[in-house]
Structures are given as structure tokens and as C-alpha cells.
Amino acid sequence: HHLKKLEGRRLDYDYKKKRFGKIPDEEVKQAVEKFEESKELAERSMFNFLENDVEQVSQLAVFVEAALDYHKQSTEILEDLQSKLQNRINVASSRPKREFKPKPVVTTTLEIGDNQQHNGIAYSSSIKSSGSSMHMDQPCCQALYDFEPENEGELGFKEGDIITLTNQIDENWYEGMLN
């Protein structure tokens, strides 16, 4: 703003100076005063800008330093993550390939055929539930009647409950849990 005003007043002064003698001296004198006033305002504005510029640049430098620290930390975190991921890739690629083998629903250790009954519990390779077949990845059975536990560690269940078998204690007893 001040520079445009200064430029306009300089042009006015130059014009009146060239026409010296044809224009009254008072107008030339006023043009000189306005030009000098605008020149002083422009110089003062530039000085203030440069003084403030040091403060603004200092604040900008602090901001840039903080941003640089942030990005250095981000870089360190990402490099650490990249290293960990590369280690996982190396470990996974050095392991022998394994094939997926589904676990049987009824294991051979149960030695109970499909849809047989033993100790009040029906064993089946799949349990019918509301008309659809529900396959489990562990041996399971369906309770034929209610059982109230009498001792600590015994599992209570109701008729129709699905029990996942976790361990065979002996020929007649199994450990399990309710689904």
C-alpha cells in the first residue's frame, strides 16, 4: 500500500518538476512534501517489517525444528516397524510349509461309532441343530438327559446341550465344556 502511494506521489512530483515555471511553486512544494512524507512512511513500514521479520522468522524456525523432530521420530518408528515386519517375513519364509488338515469331529480315541450312545450321551460326527448341520472342529456330543453335578469339577448340563469333548479320562469318562 505504502509503495503504491509513494510511486504515485513520485510521478506527480516528477510531472510538476518538469513543468516548473508553468505550475505554481506552491503546487511543486506540496508535491515534494507529499513525496517525502510517503517516502518516510514506506521506509518506516519496511523497517518495521524487517524488525518483525526477525521475530516471525525465529518463530518459523522453531516451528520447522518441531516439525523436523516429529518427522525424525516418525521415521524411526516406521523404520523399526519395517524391520520387525521384515523379520516376520524372514521367519515365515524360512519355516517349512504346512498343509491344513481339518480336525475330525469324533476322534478315533473315542472308539465310538457314528450316532452311538454311551453313558447317556449320544456321540455323532455332526449334530443336527434346528434343521441344519453344525460342524465342530473338536469332538462333541449331545446330552440325552439332564445331569446335575454332585462333585466339584463335574459338568452340569440339560437334555439337548452340545458338549465339546476336551479329554478322555478313561473308557467311560470324558472331560468337556458346554458351548
User: What's the tally of helices?
Assistant: 2
User: Which superfamily, in CATH terms, is the homologous superfamily of the largest domain?
Assistant: Arfaptin homology (AH) domain/BAR domain
Strand/helix succession? HHEEEEEEE
What's the alpha carbon Rg, rounded to whole Å?
47 Å
SSE-based structural type: alpha+beta
- What's the CATH architecture name of the largest domain? Up-down Bundle
CATH topology group of the largest domain = Substrate Binding Domain Of Dnak, Chain:A, Domain 2
- Please state roughly what percent of the residues sit in beta strands, choosing from under 5%, 5-15%, 15-25%, 25-35%, 35-45% or over 45%: 15-25%
Whole-number mean pLDDT: 79
Q: Could you tell me the number of beta strands?
A: 7
Largest sheet: 5 strands, antiparallel
* Broad shape: rod-shaped
Percent in helix: 40-55%
Oligomerization: single chain
Q: Indicate the CATH class of the largest domain.
A: Mainly Alpha
The order of strands across the largest sheet is 1-2-5-6-7
* Unreliable residue runs: 107-116, 124-135
- C-alpha end-to-end distance: 81 Å
List the helices and strands and how they pair.
Blueprint: H1 2-18, H2 25-94, E1 116-118, E2 121-123, E3 127-129, E4 132-134, E5 140-143, E6 162-168, E7 174-178
Antiparallel strand pairs: 1-2, 2-5, 3-4, 5-6, 6-7
What report would you give on this structure?
A five-stranded antiparallel β-sheet has the order 1-2-5-6-7, with no helix packed on it. The chain has a two-stranded antiparallel sheet with strand order 3-4. It folds into two domains: 2-94, Substrate Binding Domain Of Dnak, Chain:A, Domain 2 (Up-down Bundle); 108-178, SH3 Domains (SH3 type barrels, Roll), CATH 2.30.30. The radius of gyration is 47 Å and the shape is rod-shaped. With 179 residues, it is an alpha+beta fold. A hairpin with a 5-residue loop joins strand 6 and strand 7 (174-178). 8% of the residues are buried. The protein has helices spanning 2-18, 25-94; strands at residues 116-118, 121-123, 127-129, 132-134, 140-143, 162-168, 174-178. It is built from two helices and seven strands, in the order ααβββββββ. The longest helix has 70 residues, at 25-94.
